[in-house]
Amino acid sequence: NLSLRKADYLAVGGFDQSLGQSEDFELGLRLEKAGIPIVYLNDAHVFHGSDHVDRQFFMSRAQRYGTFESRISHKHPDMTNANPWRYLFQMNVLARPAVGAAYVFPSVAEKMISATLVAAEKADEIGLEHLAFRATSIAYTMEYYRGVRAEAKSMLNGLQDLARYLKLKRSQND
């Protein structure tokens, strides 16, 4: 959720109507490229109704985010924060193998994701909310990377995107 000047919105072309999801994220990238300052306000509040009540919808949304954010990455190949592989390096090292497996073996990952969500529900039932949240986050991220893989059309194409991300990240750190 954000607010911005109408002139800035129009100057960068508004929302990309070809995207089925993440159009707000992509708009933010174009605003950033245009040099429009993005300011986080601690005192600003928003009330946003959640649609995360249905597991199937929630997981389907995760996969769509992976798909559309991959497309966005190709629109903005010069921006590391547009590349879906950035999340892999932001997450706990111990969770990375599960996420990698979801990318490499997307059909097997469906069962892994289901089992992870069942474990999260059980953890929640016995009062281990923190563990339940972590497990749900891992399942969501696994589903996200199934979307990344689907959009890549092959493991090799996706790994080339990963290599592009690592090269760009390395060049920005030099």
Low-confidence stretches: none
The total count of strands amounts to 0
Query: What share of the residues lie within helices?
Result: 55-70%
Distance between the termini: 34 Å
Instruction: Please tally the helical runs, counting DSSP H or I stretches of 4 or more residues.
Output: 8
Descriptors:
single chain, 174 residues, mainly alpha, 66% helix, globular
Please characterize this protein's 3D structure.
With 174 residues, the chain is an all-alpha fold. The chain is built from eight helices and no strands. The chain has helices at 6-11, 23-33, 55-75, 86-90, 96-104, 106-125, 129-152, 155-173. Helix 7 (129-152) crosses helix 8 (155-173). 25% of the residues are buried.
How do you describe this structure in short?
It contains 8 helices and no strands.
Strand-helix topology:
Layout: H1 6-11, H2 23-33, H3 55-75, H4 86-90, H5 96-104, H6 106-125, H7 129-152, H8 155-173
Helix pairs in contact: 3-7, 5-6, 5-7, 6-7, 7-8
